[in-house]
Amino acid sequence: xxxxxxxxxxxLYPDEFAERYRKAGLWVDETIPEFLENSCTxxxxxxxxxxVSHQKISQGESDLVARLTYTELRxxxxxxxxxxxxxxxxxxDRVLLQLPNIAxxxxxxLGIFWAGGIPVFCLPAHRASDLIHFALKSxxxxxxxxxxxxxxxxxxxxxSVAANVEDQQNRRMVGIDxxxxxDLSKTPSxxxxxxxxNTERARKSEQVAFLQLSGGTTGxxxxxxxxxxxxxxxxxQSVKICQLNCESTLLVVLPASHNFAMSSAGILGAMCAGSxxxxxxxxxxxxxxxxxxxxxxxxxxxxxxxxxxxxxSAAKRQPNVESLELIQIGGAKLLPxxxxxxxxxxxxxxxxxxxxxxxxxxxxxxxxSDEMRLHTQGRPMSEFxxxxxxxxxxxxxxxxxxxxLLTRGPYTIRGYYNEPAINAKSFTDDGFYRTGDIVRVHPTxxxxxxxxxxxxxxxxxEKIAVDEIEDVALMHPKVYDAVAVGLPDPTVGERIYLVVxxxxxxxxxxxxxxxxxNHFAKRQVTPYxxxxxxxxxxxxxxxxxxxxxxxxxxxxxxxxxxxxKEKHA
Length: 569
Ligand code: AMP
Ligand code: DBH
Prior knowledge:
- The structure is a single chain.
- The protein is an alpha/beta fold.
- Helix content is 35%, strand content 22%.
- The protein is built from 18 helices and 24 strands.
- The strands form 6 sheets. A 9-stranded mixed β-sheet has the order 2-1-10-9-11-12-13-14-15, sandwiched between helices.
- The protein is globular, with a radius of gyration of 23 Å.
- 2,3-dihydroxy-benzoic acid (DBH) binds at residues 259-260, 263-264, 330-331, 353, 355-357, 361.
- The site of adenosine monophosphate (AMP) has 21 residues, from strand 13, strand 18 and strand 19.
């Protein structure tokens, strides 16, 4: 038996579907590295990126902002590719990309692709527990970070993750500090590595291009294997629907690694259209409003809590946002009452975006009625997207009724990376992805998200598996049982509310929340997953009435918390 060690554990699109998508011209023989190279040459003279540069900070330059044309971006990215190769990354190797919204983000994104690497899209907020999980799961051989990223000592964080990888998998994971200046005495090779054949598919473009992260519903995030062909199709289709052109200057405020920011139409959409990308170093309305005015920004992507913060700030600051043409909002449900204030205050046209890193993306369209734009989350971007709305037994519900959303299509994955047990639950036998969203479909075909059937908290558009929080809480020696719920909140969407049943005689003292947060920090959990409110209870609701599901207990706990809140109000 001669097994190809490069073959990745992914579920492929069945032949018959692959052929259909190719025949219809959706999937083409182009890889992401080729696409990036083409856009750098096609739009050579255009402005590509305006962003703070950590290389400049590390060199003590006073002008910390980099402005690069597509030609300059290409030159920088070739240097990054050379550094990535020198660090030992070989075609097909997985590379954790963990950079904030700085110029080097784009430079290394291109550099990793051009070195033949497979990026794993981490967030700057991720801490050791997540990073170790991603590194082990993907067998990453390198970790790109910047030691000037605020909030943490990233060198130290890298060493701790690398030490864990060494212990558990007996191999080295190198660190690449993107703030270190390039060695300009070496001329980089201008060859771009081709992707290796890492699945059984015969075509380069149908290989896995990168691993995106899912918010996850069970434990830690799962890795999402997206192929060159499926992703580039979704980007091109998004560019068409969002009507981007080379003048559609994009402001990137959400973390660049988010699927929304990367592809709906986002960063790759801007590269496809040849437009400029302006990276906001922080998501505050003040920073964003200044950049919009200075750089004549036309398109911005927001999550609902951020949109609300912008509305509140705009009322005070009266910013000049006249250049804004398109305001895309997605990642969590946008309330109609907020939706209707967007255009009057922020000028641009509202577009709702309901998407997922697993694939399916829905958009409201430019010529939709206000009614649809304000009250629905849009419709699938492709006529090849298949949508089913079913009851708890997978039977389709009556037209217009709410039910579970299942989907399959030319850019929706057929399985998570190396997760056979989870895949058996998350996908139907015929390959539909169970989104965990409850929706109803209007007669126009537009989808309205009416609920959620997954045990997940959506905080600022970040998805957090309730399981993971409860698992960490249960490791505390004083905790007998723990239930986490998402408490509706006007500023972040949902807050993490943790109810703890203590061990007999355990005393949580003055501040259970401080004690629990401390425990989460010690376990190196990513801070946005820390409990924000902690309540001690002697017993959980429902647990004394026999066999009930964990989901029922969580619902009863949320009910209890909401009722107690109402009494206080
Ligand atoms: P993920 O699978 O981690 O990429 O997260 C995708 C999930 O975010 C979706 O399945 C929805 O639950 C949620 N989501 C994204 N966009 C919206 C939206 N516009 N309205 C409601 N929920 C959304
Ligand atoms: O929340 C998401 O994951 C999301 C939202 C909007 C997404 O992946 C997307 C658009 O592509």
